[in-house]
Amino acid sequence: xxxxxxxxxxxxxxxxxxxxxxxxxxxxxxxxxxxxxxxxxxxxxxxxxxxxxxxxxxxxxxxxxxxxxxxxxxxxxxxxxxxxxxxxxxxxxxxxxxxxxxxxxxxxxxxxxxxxxxxxxxxxxxxxxxxxxxxxxxxxxxxxxxxxxxxxxxxxxxxxxxxxxxxxxxxx
Length: 172
Known about the structure:
By secondary structure, this protein is of the alpha+beta class. The protein has one domain: Gcn5-related N-acetyltransferase (GNAT) (Aminopeptidase, 3-Layer(aba) Sandwich). Helix content is 27%, strand content 35%. It has helices at residues 19-26, 43-52, 57-60, 106-121, 136-143, and strands at 9-12, 63-69, 74-85, 90-97, 126-132, 147-158, 161-171. The protein has a seven-stranded mixed sheet. Helix 4 links the parallel strand 4 and strand 5. Helix 1 crosses helix 2 (43-52). The longest helix is centred in the middle third of the chain and has 16 residues, at 106-121. The chain is globular and about 40 Å long. The protein starts with 8 loop residues before the first strand and ends with a strand. The model has no long low-confidence stretch (mean pLDDT 90).
């Protein structure tokens, strides 16, 4: 089996055919407060990103992978590795599963694939996530296998005020 493939999921590089999905997901402002997005992306920007990216985490310091359901070949979400720091041997992780595909275990399978890639292929020491305190589904996903190592108080501004961010880490 492929390094980036499990029973139900295959992680792959973005393709030009993913443009409309990425455009839809990146411009859904309901989630912007959790990912530091402040402005919408144009189709041109996303098309340029797909076309020009080398998808080399060492060069770009980040890597986006599309989460594809294997039996249908439908893209259900994304895995983002970012803030890659080779010197300190760590990388941040972001998972996104489109609302219509949530609750089917895709995030859990994709997390295991990302961990395997980061720890066993890239040989990186630390994977970390930062999760809004109110994001209970994400917290539940990470609380079992990651260690809670901190809280950034009033870290993100929401419509209701400020919210805390929890930092979870996993080590190789």
